[in-house]
Write a structure and sequence with these properties.
alpha+beta, 4 helices, about 15% strand, peptidylprolyl isomerase, E_coli_cyclophilin_A-like, Cyclophilin-type_PPIase_dom
């Protein structure tokens, strides 16, 4: 089904600009929803081929936290490591109110305005609970792309395509 994300550049201009560039480059096409944690998030952002992932591996700065912008249901946010300014290509959609992420520097850049029901019915790859090293292994996926993930997780959900609309 179709999922529509409304990007609000005033919330997180750096993140919004990176997302625009990634979609324009078809980065997310054929990418897998590799991390699904019920009652928390759904995450994607490793390209279907390792060369594309490597092409976009440069980190971007964090967006400043702004009052009134929170990780509520349906908001879209860049994932990052625990280090500041470590965002690259991975994004997640909040399944629930995850406002506790706000003070950790996770600033939403958009919101799902159509298709949230589609995202909440994706298959979990983590067994329904938080696992510090969720399967599938992100590093192995990053190095081997869809050839590996589809061989090892044949039921994983894949993004068919993405586009920019005005």
């Amino acid at each position: 089904g179709m999922v529509t994300i409304l990007v609000n550049r005033t919330w997180a201009p750096i993140g919004a600009d990176r997302f625009y560039s990634l979609v324009k480059d078809n980065y997310y096409n054929c990418a897998a929803f590799f991390r699904v944690i019920p009652d928390f998030i759904i995450q994607w952002g490793i390209a279907s081929n390792p060369e594309e992932t490597e092409k976009w591996s440069t980190s971007i700065d964090d967006d400043p936290t702004q009052s009134g912008i929170s990780n509520i249901v349906g908001t879209v946010t860049f994932a990052k490591t625990s280090a500041p300014n470590s965002r690259t290509t991975q994004i997640f959609v909040n399944y629930v109110d995850n406002s506790f992420l706000d003070n950790q520097g996770f600033v939403p850049f958009g919101k799902v305005v159509k298709g949230m029901d589609i995202l909440t019915t994706r298959k979990t790859t983590t067994g329904g609970m938080y696992i510090p090293n969720p399967v599938p292994d992100q590093n192995v996926y990053r190095m081997n792309g869809n050839e590996w993930i589809l061989e090892n997780y044949p039921d994983i959900d894949i993004i068919k395509g993405s586009k920019i609309s005005s």
